[in-house]
Design brief:
Blueprint lengths: L12 H17 L15 H25 L24 H18 L15 H25 L19 E6 L5 H10 L3 E6 L10 H6 L7 E4 L6 E4 L1 H12 L18 H29 L5 H24 L10 H10 L14 H11 L2 H10 L18 H7 L3
Parallel strand pairs: 1-2
Antiparallel strand pairs: 1-3, 3-4
Helix pairs in contact: 1-2, 5-7, 5-10, 5-12, 8-9, 8-10, 9-11
The structure holds glutathione (GSH).
């Protein structure tokens, strides 16, 4: 029979349940209990599961304690205690970094006891020093490149003096008019990377990719990037991948040193990552689904279309709240590639899927800030025939494509 006495005050439910289960088992088995722990495969599944969860949690805590005793679990690993915020590792300042290089080199020379002195270069055995040393060399090469360009008086217009880029051959970007490849044109303009733009036009009836683009890019979509500075050349589809590639390989490029990504240690790093991926992973995916569903059903009142719209509106509220919180850009106070990734969905995309942004004042404020950026204006000028930024609460619909006209006109 079950013990129906009330839970003793101060005893947590879980332990109380364990004790009760053990007592019941002992009664059923006539003794031979395992110290109060419920057994697996016995009728008391709740107790078993809680008990094993407890064991697992204890195991994790023990592992964490062990790592902490050993002085941390690897350079970039943080173990978060409940309710204890993660404090990012401070980035080394430039002077600290040089000091670190010197110290490591000195230590290594001492260890090698006068062994081959390579002029102070750290040994390849120290991966941290080697990494920093190569970063240092890379930076030196970029600065040397700039000095050389400046001495030569520039090799191609005013931009040549501001580019710190190791780009020898201009990157090639395949862009389609009125498409999400405008993200990459804008990003390249912000980064001041030399590039050649090849503009394609959508099929005048279907609004899909023209055959010439399909022939070049196996994915058949825009954007598509070719980088011939490396061998073999890099050919890349997917705007998120292209943006991440450009930032990792060529950023920052301007003399102001403004980075459009965020690195671990930067307080905005996690937010940057989240919003950088939100653009294509959630927002554009929802909009595309909505557009396809609307075109397929031809009915804005269809249940599926209405449900999809409710979901989309929740996403827009999220973006609006985020922009209200930062009062500036998606990742924080400064523009980042997360903004470059997200803007298309809320501007040009609305020509394909009309969406009234009046309920989202922070999104509208952000779009005006984007449109004020010279780099964004240049991107639209070069890639979209000087199209006006589509930043109003409502925008024109792309009814010039017969494949879309009939449906778009119902909105
Ligand atoms: N997820 C891809 C999507 C690329 C994509 O679908 N681009 C559209 C332009 S907005 C396209 O090329 N559409 C033409 C087609 O599918 O035929 C990316 O981010 O690059």
């Amino acid at each position: 029979m079950r013990d129906t006495s009330p839970t003793p005050p101060g005893t947590d439910l879980y332990h109380y349940h364990l004790q009760q289960s053990a007592r019941q088992e002992q009664q059923q088995q006539g003794g031979g209990g395992d110290g109060g722990n419920p057994a697996l495969n016995k009728p008391d599944n709740v107790g078993s599961q809680m008990y094993h969860e407890h064991i697992q949690r204890e195991g994790r805590l023990e592992e964490q304690r062990r790592r902490e005793r050993q002085g941390g679990g690897g350079a970039d690993t943080f173990y978060q205690q409940p309710n204890v915020p993660i404090v990012p590792r401070p980035q080394l300042l430039r002077d600290e970094y040089h000091e670190y290089l010197h110290q490591s080199t000195r230590q290594q020379q001492q260890q090698q006891q006068g062994g081959s002195n390579d002029g102070g270069n750290p040994s390849p055995d120290d991966p941290v020093v080697t990494h920093m040393y190569h970063d240092h060399l890379h930076g030196e090469r970029l600065r040397e490149d700039t000095r050389r360009r400046e001495q030569q008086g520039g090799s191609g217009g005013s931009r040549s003096t501001t580019i710190l880029s190791p780009v020898k051959m201009p990157l090639e970007l395949y862009h389609m008019h009125l498409s999400q490849s405008e993200r990459i044109v804008w990003l390249l303009e912000e980064m001041e990377i030399p590039y050649e733009l090849r503009v394609f036009y959508r099929d005048p009836v279907t609004a899909l990719s023209p055959d010439e683009l399909k022939a070049l890019n196996p994915a058949g979509t825009a954007p598509y990037l070719r980088d011939t500075n490396v061998s073999p050349p890099v050919c890349l589809s997917e705007s998120t991948a292209i943006a991440a590639y450009l930032l990792a390989v060529y950023g920052p490029q301007s003399e102001s040193g403004t980075r459009l990504d965020r690195a671990p240690g930067d307080p905005d790093y996690a937010a940057y990552l989240e919003w950088f991926h939100y653009a294509n992973g959630s927002l554009q995916a929802s909009l595309f689904r909505q557009m396809s569903l609307t075109l397929a059903t031809g009915d804005p009142e269809h249940t599926g279309v209405r449900r999809g719209l409710a979901r989309l509106e929740a996403q827009l509220r999220l973006v609006d709240e985020r922009l209200a919180r930062t009062g500036a850009w998606l990742a924080g106070e400064r523009l980042s590639a997360a903004d470059c990734m997200a803007v298309f969905s809320l501007t040009t995309m609305r020509g394909f899927y009309p969406l009234d942004l009046a309920p989202y004042p922070n999104i509208l404020r952000w779009l005006r800030d984007v449109a004020d950026r010279p780099a964004y204006r240049r991107a639209l000028k070069k890639g979209d025939g000087s199209m006006e930024p589509m930043i109003g609460s409502t925008v024109r619909k792309f009814t010039e494509f017969p494949g879309l006209k009939a449906v778009l006109e119902r909105f």
